[in-house]
Design goal:
six-stranded mixed sheet; 338 residues; single chain; 6 helices; alpha+beta
Length: 338
């Protein structure tokens, strides 16, 4: 009788997946990890900017006091930004995944999807920190907060002459211009002249960061720990930092192209509204994880009503980016990274 070999095509085997799930998504949230995050309260985010109005003068001996003045306060108000990520899994998918041997991470499919949802929510927020319009329930991002001297921010119209104190430092050469150390130092000096403090953080796109890094190739300073308003942050393999006159430059995939954001982290904060919940059901808080560490944003995990043979949940957060002193920050536009 002929010898018949049993080949792979003649047998049925379970599909086995090597290792665990390998995410192919960049959801790193650099800005969220660099800025201070503080709890807020109440109807909105409000602060009181104060402008120069006090008088001081030389006087002659015995002269009456006739010139009086006082610094003028205004009301800055930002609405809360509302953001969420929704999760919807069928019972069949949950049960089938829980009884499968691989990938191991799918055996806890609900938890896996919650983690992915928080990461997606975090990266959405990180992008909004730059480009958010600030209208309705959106975040007023840096482009709105420090990208213009003539727009309205926090309810204050900066185009009127009396509100010049609330303007950021916008440096725009009008056409693409290669960055130099001299230009960067000039930007820092402009901000210092306006507010008396240097920016401690500058954020830009990877292309602009690489261009600035090229200015240091001969004498590059390696930095593995940076000091921010959040405290010391140790840089991992995905982080790099450059320092110019005490201002740390970092790259962020979400930063608007061809721009450098100069930030004073004493006056730029992320403010969130802590969840309270109903009396008999305390809120379930959950932290965002972008795959590179947690971000404390006061996110609320909320189970939604069952819909057929499936389960639904929502992760939401209420927050806003606040720049309470725009003249302590600045932006350089039309940076040529080529």
């Amino acid at each position: 009788m002929a010898d018949t070999v049993t080949t792979l095509s003649l047998i049925t085997l379970a599909q086995e997946y090597r290792g665990d799930i390998v995410r192919q998504i960049n959801r790193r949230t650099v800005l969220l990890k660099m800025l201070p995050i503080v709890p807020g309260a109440g109807l909105n985010v409000a602060f009181a900017p104060e402008a120069d109005g006090q008088t001081a003068e030389n006087y002659s001996d015995g002269a009456d006091a006739v010139n009086f003045g006082g610094d003028v306060q205004a009301s800055g108000v930002l609405s809360w930004g509302l953001y969420r990520a929704n999760v919807h899994l069928s019972d069949l998918a949950t049960d089938a995944a829980g009884s499968s041997s691989t990938p191991m991470e799918n055996r806890r499919l609900w938890a896996h999807n919650i983690i992915n949802a928080t990461a997606k929510l975090a990266t959405t927020l990180n992008a909004a920190m730059y480009s958010g319009a600030g209208t309705g329930t959106t975040i007023a991002g840096l482009d709105a907060a420090i990208g213009s001297t003539t727009n309205t921010y926090a309810g204050i119209n900066r185009s009127t002459g009396g509100n010049a104190y609330f303007q950021p430092n916008v440096i725009d050469p009008g056409s693409l211009t290669a960055p130099t150390l001299a230009l960067i130092r000039s930007d820092i000096a402009t901000i210092y002249t306006a507010c008396g403090e240097n920016p401690d953080l500058a954020v830009c796109s990877p292309a602009v960061f690489n261009k600035i890094g090229g200015l240091f190739d001969a004498t590059r300073r390696q930095i593995d720990v940076v000091q921010t308003a959040r405290g010391a942050i140790r840089l991992d393999f995905g982080w790099q930092a450059l320092e110019v006159d005490g201002t740390l430059f970092v790259k962020d995939k979400d930063a608007t192209a061809n721009q450098i954001y100069y930030l004073n982290t004493n006056h730029v904060k992320i403010q969130y509204l802590p969840p309270v919940g109903v009396p008999d059901a305390p809120p379930q808080t959950i932290e965002a994880d972008d795959g590179f560490g947690q971000v404390m944003l006061g996110m609320r995990y909320k189970k939604l009503a069952t819909l057929g043979a499936s389960e639904r949940a929502q992760i939401n957060t209420t927050l806003q980016l606040v720049v309470d002193r725009p003249n302590s920050c600045g932006i350089r536009k039309n940076v040529n990274p080529a």
